[in-house]
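Task card 7
Instruction: Convert sequence to structure tokens.
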Amino acid sequence: MSSLSIATAKEVFDLLRDDLAAIEQEFLKQSNSQVEVITDIAQYLVSGGGKRIRPLLLLLSAKALGSTNHSRIRLGAVVEMLHTATLVHDDIIDEAELRRGRPSSNTTWGNAKCVLAGDWLYMQAFSAALEERNFHVLDLLISLTQQMVEGELLQMQKLGHLINEEEYFDLIYRKTACLFSVSMQLGAAVTNARPEVEATLGEYGRNLGLAFQIVDDVLDLTAAEDVLGKPVASDLREGKATLAVIHALERGTGADREAIRTVLNERSFGTVSHPQILEILERHGSIAYAMDTACAYAEAARLSIADLPVTDAKRALLWVPGFVTSRDR
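Output:
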């Protein structure tokens, strides 16, 4: 792809500013409950910011196919509500104390209230989606939710265990890339696009989502805590082996493998330090390997939409993979 065909960050923001603001308002409207604590938790989560990349993808998918109806706003709020619900539940499962540099919702309100608020957000997302009166939309969202729950359960089963790359990619597809893919598919669904067009956009989302999660996992290992907004190397402390770690395990010396296994088993850096693990990863080129893999998926995302008509939305879709692979948080 020619770099001249790729939008700038400002162009993308200008293209989507009003729609993203409308999605924010729709989210707040949909998360307003008669039970005050639900509204409080939802508004706290919305005010925490975030990249809003999933609704952004849905908007760009719809715009690339010429849609301007309200469905793109409603479903943009739906995918962000689903994502937010997963974050609430993830923080409870991981016993996280911080999210985006602030106390996590479960730290503030407690696990019991937050797990129920997360459940409520899931159901409210489906209630909003039901207003579309579109069985295909519901089918996509039901399949998505099942995949995400299965991914979380699979990850819990594998905590502290060594996994291979195939298992890793299955996990990150279910936990992350599936939602990216469905966000793109929903943008096509509101335009009644042909199945092959929807499949193409879904493939873009899948590749982008894989790249996004690989970069997330690298940043978890390498970023500074004040930039990341949460403790570094949380994955290793939780017993999760991510791509760079898997690469080093397959190529390291016996001592290297034992050091990594110790951290995964102990779920702490008490015996082996974080700098020691980073040295092992750097020595075997494992961080570079993971980033190269992320960049390959990002480029695959760009290539997958080569046949889309040239529009401002397509130029924006060509920009997103670069944003995903060059971010620092």
